[in-house]
Amino acid sequence: MHSTTAIPELVSAVRARFDSGRTRSLGWRLQQLAGLRDFLIERGPELERALRDDLAKSPSESQLTEIGVVLAEVTHTISSLKGWLRPRRVAVPLALAPASASVMLEPLGVVLIISPWNYPVQLLLAPLVGALAAGNAVVLKPSELAPATSAVFARLLPRYLDESAVVVLEGAVDETTELLAQRFDHIFYTGNSRVARIVAAAAAKNLTPVTLELGGKSPAYVDDSVDIDAAAKRIAWGKFLNAGQTCVAPDYVLATPDVASRLVEALRAAIATLYGSDARQTTDYGRIVSDAQFERLRGLIGAEKPAIGGETDASERYIEPTVLVGVGRDDDVMKQEIFGPILPIVTVAGLDDALSYIRTGDKPLALYVFTDDEDARRRFLTETSSGAVGFGVTVAHLSVPGLPFGGVGESGTGSYHGRRSVETFSHEKAVLSKPLAPDTLRLIYPPYTPRRSSFIRGILRRLS
Ligand code: NAD
Question: What CA–CA distance (Å, rounded) separates 206 from 441?
């Protein structure tokens, strides 16, 4: 933990490193990415242990959803970076010929990455891949609510990276507040939308661009055209992964009463397949991050017996995979992001009702649609807005490097992953180059004689 008084100096030192120009070369960038890859491979066991301490994640889940996701990102970036950085030629209007125009990516400068506790490895290091690949210096602020993982970063990451250009600053609200008082060239924040507003307000003071990766209520829709058992398995996996503490987890399900009752039985079977008859006994099922979150979630289950699950144990912060039926649209559980292993099924009259329900809420981070009806799929795509849409699958879109990952409206601003990350952390500089001779521009210079004016009008007409 750094004292807050040391923070301005620390950020200045990182800026001096950026200003030295060292982080710009392709060689430096590739070296950092290779260092990050080595960190993930060599320190995998330490990271797995920390994730178990912080969130009771199983080693396989940690590999699949944290370490493996970043490894895939870093490997993809190493192999593609040279091509991504090549200036992109664009066409020049005839009236400007001869000339050449191109777009080049240049590093933004010093980037601040603030990450949350739920995927503490992935959500700190995946943005770092893009920031380094784009040639920036970086200040990393891991979440204090995943302290074991944060400590691994602070202790070990500097050994693998250029430690004058990449700094880990541990801490909570005080440290982050002091950090946000410094000038950065980009702030990349992942977390809740309340703090996002604090981050955006601080960034606005310096006109610093922000990426905000937020959350919200991601719906799943199921109709009777699909194999309900298969859909239930995909939904249960996405929902109960990391005990529901996943930003892109399906938050709730919309279905007609008939589909809802079949879905409950299918979910019961799916949960038993994934976690056995007692999820408490398997190391493949996580725990809730804090007592405060545990109490909030216990309150959401309420007094009525859930259709599935509902068991809790405060001593372990254990909440059984739980499914609620008969949920009203105004119930507490439908008024906030659940972010835990509770899946309400809200009944709708049909497709139109489902579409209008989704449209009346905030734009979600993800929307999951389980239907074989092509027209219904098209309507979800064109009549709703969300960060992403998954047909027949939950959560997995974030592992496709070619897909931008991010929200829209209340679920976020901006996106990253793969090439999009490099663009996010770069300025797209416009470059136009025109030889001084022949001086074709003389045709548009004043004085605007009648002849020249009619020439200009002719050109503009031809261009429009
Ligand atoms: P959190 O409590 O760990 O907070 C996130 C970060 O904000 C931390 O680094 C924390 O130190 C900092 N912070 C907290 N209070 C602050 C303040 N007052 N001023 C400045 N900084 C402050 O995590 P969280 O917000 O509880 O994370 C859960 C939320 O994040 C959910 O809404 C979830 O949907 C969202 N999320 C989004 C994504 C995504 O990729 N879109 C991924 C994971 C989580």
Answer: 38
Give the residue from 243, 244, 264 showing the smallest Cα distance to 253. Answer: 264
Q: Among 118, 179, 403, which residue has the most ligand 1 atoms within 8 Å of its CB, making it the best to mutate?
A: 118
H/E element, 222:
strand 219-222
Q: Would you call 213 a catalytic residue per the annotation?
A: yes
Three-state DSSP class for 102? strand
Closest CA to 248 of 278, 216, 223: 216
Q: Assign domain 4-214+414-427 to its CATH superfamily.
A: Aldehyde Dehydrogenase; Chain A, domain 1 (3.40.605.10)
The full set of domain ranges for the chain reads 4-214+414-427, 219-406
pLDDT tens column, 179-228: 999 999 999 999 999 999 999 999 999 999 999 999 999 999 999 999 99
The pTM for the full model equals: 0.96
> Using one digit for the tens of pLDDT, what is the confidence trace for 277-302?
999 999 999 999 999 999 999 999 98
Q: Is 178 a residue of the active site?
A: no
Rounded CA gap, 33 and 146, in Å?
A: 24
Going from the Cα of 442 to the center of ligand 1, the distance in angstroms, rounded, reads: 57
Fold of 219-406: Aldehyde Dehydrogenase; Chain A, domain 2 (3.40.309)
The beta-strand segments (E) located in 371-410 are 388-391
Would you say the C-alpha torsion 263, 265, 266, 267 has a positive or negative sign? positive
On whether the CB atoms of residues 255 and 220 are closer than 8 A, the answer is no
Instruction: Name the 3-class secondary structure at 200.
Output: helix
The distance from CA 289 to its chain's CA centroid, rounded to whole angstroms, is 20
